[in-house]
Amino acid sequence: MKIIKEAQVRSEEDNRNLRETVAGIIGEVRGRGDAALREYNEKFDGCTRESLRVSREEIDAAYKELGEQELADLKAAHHNIGAFANAQRQTVKPLDNFSPEPGVFLGHRIIPVESCCCYVPGGNYPLYSTALMLATPAKAAGVKRITACAPVVRGTGHINARTLVAMDLAGVDEIYALGGAQAIAAFSYGTGSIKPVDIIVGPGNRFVTEAKRQCYGQVGIDFVAGPSEVLVIADGKASAKVVAADLLAQSEHDVNAKGILLTTDEAFGKSVIEAVEEELKILDTAKIARQSWDTFGEIGVVDSLDEAVQYANEYAPEHLELNVEDPDALIPKLVNYGSLFIGQNTAEVFGDYASGTNHTLPTLRAARYTGGVWVGTFLKTCTHQSMTPEASARIAPLVSRMAHGEGLSGHAAAADARK
Predict the structure, then answer these.
(1) What is d(CA 40, CA 48) in angstroms, rounded to the nearest whole number?
(2) Contact 151, 127 (CB under 8 A)
(3) Which of 3, 80, 188, 411 falls 20 to 30 Å from 98 in CA-CA distance?
(4) Domains of the chain
(5) What is the mean pLDDT of the chain?
């Protein structure tokens, strides 16, 4: 592969200070509960509110802040996300009375987790779309207690109004004005005002990510996420302007985001570089997008689309776009990606907001072993079995011999008792 725009290699950050800082925050929350949460709220977000839980009155007031079009847009996006999540739920089915041999009956139940926390970032932008993406599939899965949290708008005591409305539309039962590593600790271990949950989902900054890593085991998590990334595979017949727009849509997330183009046409690759430069002249978020693109943007020229497929499978990108004349020829060969966007008509940003698939996706090559958040994230497949007396007596000698082979005589005795 010929590189015509090279990205800097991500340096391995010394995370010792991060780990220690987050461990300290978790320890404070576990030890001092709500008092620690209020102190962190004031320290990091300038929030002095006494009650961490958002009231119904605050939610109703948030609706009044939205215009008719804003509310209609949220409802339309929620409809598509919910429709897809409910369709996915129908594909996850219980199994009963499977019999591998006479008298042995096996099966499984599909059981939703009892409770979850949807972490919705505030940070540079109010990511209200994330509220829809997290809570909607939880609702479709049948989670009984859906909680959500987000940091307040800095210097105020309130979560962004659109985020509050999105949480409410998606079916959140409890909303808390809280962010950062302290929020992850609170929903993992519980405090006086916050009951712990079974799983925490959602993206966040490196402190949130590290807190999820440290609290995993005490609580379930979706995955450990890193900076956003997109990989575009394009031939010479694609639109340079469209590809440039898609690359910059990822680059504007933050300065560590990564946009990659693989193309079979060197002239096209160079035209994309020119198109990126033109858009950066008018892009409101050019300061962040420019730094991200200059540092981590990459364009490579491949000898064939099969070479691009091989690279994509090794890289396992969060978002993968196929902007080629015959995408159907490549799809069966692609196995590692968070979400796939097929053809020039299918912008990655459509999936970010409103087409219906989820935008909470694995990064940093995690797509090799997991997909993104979906209705199944909130479901457990729990097995069961039963046997007739004849089947029990028949299988007992087999189990007894295997148990003795492992040196577990108590296991053997439990089997022999059924003879």
Answers:
(1) 10
(2) no
(3) 411
(4) 16-221 (3.40.50.1980), 227-368 (3.40.50.1980), 388-416 (no CATH)
(5) 96
Tell me the per-residue pLDDT of 303-355, one tens digit each, with 9 for 90 and over: 999 999 999 999 999 999 999 999 999 999 999 999 999 999 999 999 999 99
- All residues at 6 or more sequence positions from 228 whose CB lies less than 8 Å from its CB, including other chains: 250, 253, 254, 257, 258, 318, 319, 363
Q: Is the full-model pTM beyond 0.85?
A: yes
**Residue 411 in marked binding region:** yes
Cα-Cα-Cα-Cα dihedral sign, residues 229, 79, 123, 247: positive
11 pLDDT higher than 70: no
Question: Is position 205 annotated in a ligand binding site?
Answer: yes
The predicted-structure confidence for 362-389, as pLDDT tens digits, reads as follows: 999 999 999 999 999 999 999 999 999 9
Give the residues across from 200 on adjacent strands.
117, 221
List 229, 252, 318, 321, catalytic entry? 318
DSSP 378: G
For residue 319, indicate whether it is catalytic: yes
Whose CA is closest to 153, among 165, 163, 142? Answer: 163
Q: Which of 28, 319, 321, 348 is catalytic?
A: 319
